Structure prediction request, 471 residues.
Amino acid sequence: MNAAGRSAPIEVSYFPGCSLATTAKENNQSLIESCARLGIRLIEIPDWNCCGSSSAHSISHRLAFDLACRNLALAPAGRPLITACPSCTLRLKHAQHLLRHDPEARRRYESLWGRPYDPDLHVRHFFGLLVEIDWRSRIGNGEIAALDLTFAPYYGCMLNRPAPLRPSSDHHGIMERVLGDLGMRSVLWASSTQCCGTFLTVARPDIVTPKVNAILQNAADSGAECVVTACAMCHMNLEVRCTLKAPIPIFHFSELIALAFGSARRDWFSRHLIDPRPLLRRKGLAE
Amino acid sequence: MTLPEGPPIRLGALDPQFSREIKKLAGTDFHACLQCRSCSGGCPFSDHMDYMPNGVMRLVQLGLKQEALSCNTIWICVGCHTCSIQCPMAIDIPGVMDALREKALAENIEAIEPDILAFHREVLHSIARYGRTHKLEIMLRYKLKKRDLFSDLDVGLRMLAKRKLDLSPSRITDLEAIEKVFRP
Ligand code: SF4
Ligand code: SF4
Prediction:
């Protein structure tokens, strides 16, 4: 702790990814705001490119590897690389796994990016950082609004990894812990780790709509007033493909942290397709 | 609840070379599969697949190339890893699906789900052009190619109204680097 009673600031490299840079700007801004309050400085990787999304690895493993690697090569040494999207995280980690185990992959990396890969670069999702820091002590002296909301924590597929990439401890329960600290109550429900349908939303909405409706109905039936997502893609699919008459609203995890910290911006919530403002007003959390 | 079943697997022309190739490309040993069917029981999209995920493991073990490359399972699979997290043999099942898709394209086998392939191609087109994905353009090009501008129009308009679809792309500066990556 320094003289002001705050822990030393943490500087990390930041990979927002395409969803947060565009369709889910509110996710990006709220994450940056929340981190600022926690004394975490997110330094965006200059000129980062798309990780390849689901499409690159779906049809070309080499393209998926190269696209992920350019980002790894752009990350400066000595700082962890924080990601916000579970899917980008997996893409970057998969490329690192190949670099570690396959000399041919390392040769390709060096010939394309003109430097050896950094074996010490620690790629991790924002949640990984959150479990490690004593986040309560980092909030400082500012007010925290108690969020009187009952929520269904929705992880989608983010906790699933192929065996070689599984972390020693996963992040299950992190949303419940952190939002619980902020006054929220979580429900136990069956769809917490159900896949949202990802890219099938475009070509096969007939498959995704019933899935999404079942997830949101399940959340409401469990007594939740809202769903909280860990992934911007899940957030979009739930909002876009839901055809229920009166679905409960869906928040990005980071929006609620920023809301409790008093740094939420009104235009985040107006961007939602399922308007969360009536609920927030009812709870005295918005004008 | 009964476990979903795929079509019966009949032994035809077995191609052990194909097995070896897919194993190398997928980087996982599907020969360890003991047909417990946990993967298929948990897969959220198995209702829409012809062969079940465990069936696909069997096809590649046996080297039934034609069947493995022309099933719709490899296109429906979204890589959510719900299966591999449950697999007692720690097999990277979606990794096998990735390898089979790539192989099917290399062998010019007609995709059973052409819309899904068309979507992937539009995403890659966007990345090649901007270094990032430009969602509005991806959707428009996909719809134009399908000659179907009207389904989902309401969704597109709602997203536009909520400023969720940017009109101009977010793009990177060093497009030469991306060009290098896309060079065959
Ligand atoms: S990764 Fe593919 S096969 Fe496995 S559960 Fe998900 S959709 Fe099904
Ligand atoms: S879960 Fe694993 S071992 Fe069981 S059938 Fe599926 S791939 Fe085979």
